[in-house]
Amino acid sequence: MFRSKNVAARIFERQISTPAPGTSVHCARRFYENIVPSHTIFDIECPDILFRKFSDDGQYLITFSRNHQDLIVYRPTWLSFSCRESNCYNQDLPSKANKFESFFTQLYSVTLASSGELICKDFFLYMEKNKFGIFATSTPQIHDAPAVGGAIQGIPSIEKITFHLVRLEDGVILDERVFCNDYINLAHSMGVFLYDDLLAIVSLRYQRIQILQIRDSGNLVDVRSIGEYCREDDELFLNSSAQSMSSRTDNVANGSDHIQHIPEASFLSGLKQRLLSFIFRGIWNEEDDPTLRMQCLKKKFYFHFQDYADLVIWKVQFLDRHHLLIKFGSVDGGVGRNTDNHPAFFAVYNMETTEIISFYQNSADELYTLFELFCDHFHSSSKNSFYMNFLSTHSNNIHALDQLRCNKTKATSSPQFVKQMLASLPFNCQSQSPSPYFDHSLFRYDEKLISATDRHRPSTDHPIKFISRRQPNILKFKIKPGPESGSADTRTKRISSFIFHPILPLAISVQQTLFLQPTVVNIHFRR
């Protein structure tokens, strides 16, 4: 039996019935079937700004100035007006409804970029507990930079990258962290991951994972650096050992010039040593017979030794406070946009014990099974982030699981499908919208045109329909980007981005073209 469409009836039902244990939030989210952004104001009068997203708690709208210099933060309000008529719903909205300021109030504008830097418009991480925002500015890339000081050949260089910790309540810059002559993938926060108060920053150029802690006071504190060394005292131990060996060598050789010193570049990094040791031990334990064991090592380890040694870190994400999921691959895949044709590997690393826990290739059925059954564990969210705990995945939603298995059945090659699905790992931090309108248990929509993932989508003149999941033939609301009458030039390629409020029935659609034509901003809300 379908539930009543009447909000009053649902409120009465909530008063007289008790939901099953652990389902109170899911029952409350069903109200969104009745409260939808069903009205659209097309081409709203809007400041010339770049939209980023709402904060995860919905208190702030993050935007940037067009010159990529300033951070501009708004507070969502709501359109309010009076009506003297008996039937206000059928009356036209007042003229002020067509203004951006009727829905948002500017809190402040603060300059972040300086000394030739520009704000990365795709980068923003939110720490809900302290209402802190993390932003990034950088200078342009240098593609043919020489590999000096331990840098990896083939990785571009950025002269200066600055991370800014901003208190969003008043726009005060609390702390900054600068990386010089390095390369960090800032697009969509691919090279940075935030978990609780821990921040992981991946230096592709120097193959280093920098772990920082964000203190309640607003300070960025170094915790550890993983890469060349794994433990805090590794560098001290190696330097003291090298001095001791040098002293003994000088005493024996008495200054003779025929002693050959081993260059530092001949040693693998600490993390790479851990990885190769884990692979070696795994192959060693496969066979008990010494002859078969040696043949297995020659075939699986020594033959591919250089391939393993040449692997570089691509991406990293926290699984919890102690474990990292690290993606390895070739140098070309680390900086390219399309990594489908490059081999990739995944490793789980324990930061406390400095051990590799597991190692998989990107076509491993075992890893795909874990991904299918326990996808929520890969969407590691902060314990203080309430709304991010209700993202729809194929491990917590039967409709998403059915869609995944349907796509798997249609796939012509099972290994290729596994690679395609695992290509999204590790997940980008805070890359999905917690809006209930993307809940697969409530609504059905075309994920080719719109989804919870923070990405631009190809635009269409047809509205995007949100169909009720409980009543399959009932249209709940439509989202139409671009002008109300559609685009006059159908040959121009248009892309759209959608910014949904995590709580309110409010959304912003932004349609733009690649030829500097005016951007069209629409606001969708419940009237």
Residue share in helix = 10-25%
Largest sheet: 6 strands, antiparallel
On the 0 to 100 scale, the average pLDDT is: 87
Strand content: 25-35%
Shape call:
globular
How many angstroms does the end-to-end distance come to? 29 Å
Rg over CA atoms: 27 Å
From the helix content, strand content and strand pairing, which structural class follows? alpha+beta
Q: Regions with pLDDT < 50 over 5+ consecutive residues?
A: 256-264
Topology, please?
Layout lengths: L6 H10 L7 H6 L9 E3 L7 E6 L6 E5 L4 E7 L27 E8 L6 E2 L5 E3 L4 E7 L2 E2 L14 E11 L4 E11 L9 E4 L2 E6 L4 E7 L5 E7 L7 H20 L16 H15 L5 H13 L2 H5 L2 E7 L4 E7 L1 H5 L8 E7 L4 E7 L3 H9 L1 H4 L19 H13 L3 H9 L20 E2 L12 E2 L5 E5 L6 E5 L14 E7 L5 E8 L6 E6 L2
Antiparallel strand pairs: 1-26, 2-3, 3-4, 4-5, 6-8, 7-8, 8-10, 9-10, 10-11, 12-13, 13-14, 14-15, 16-17, 17-18, 18-19, 20-22, 21-24, 22-23, 24-25, 25-26
Write up what this structure looks like.
The protein has 527 residues and is of the alpha+beta class. The chain has eleven helices and 26 strands. It has helices at residues 7-16, 24-29, 234-253, 270-284, 290-302, 305-309, 331-335, 365-373, 375-378, 398-410, 414-422, and strands at 39-41, 49-54, 61-65, 70-76, 104-111, 118-119, 125-127, 132-138, 141-142, 157-167, 172-182, 192-195, 198-203, 208-214, 220-226, 312-318, 323-329, 344-350, 355-361, 443-444, 457-458, 464-468, 475-479, 494-500, 506-513, 520-525. The strands form six sheets. Strands 6, 7, 8, 9, 10 and 11 form a six-stranded antiparallel beta sheet that branches. Strands 1-26-25-24-21 form a five-stranded antiparallel beta sheet, with no helix packed on it. A hairpin with a 5-residue loop joins strand 14 (208-214) and strand 15 (220-226). Helix 4 packs antiparallel against helix 5 and helix 8 (365-373) crosses helix 11 (414-422). It is globular, with a radius of gyration of 27 Å. Residues 256-264 have low confidence and may be disordered.
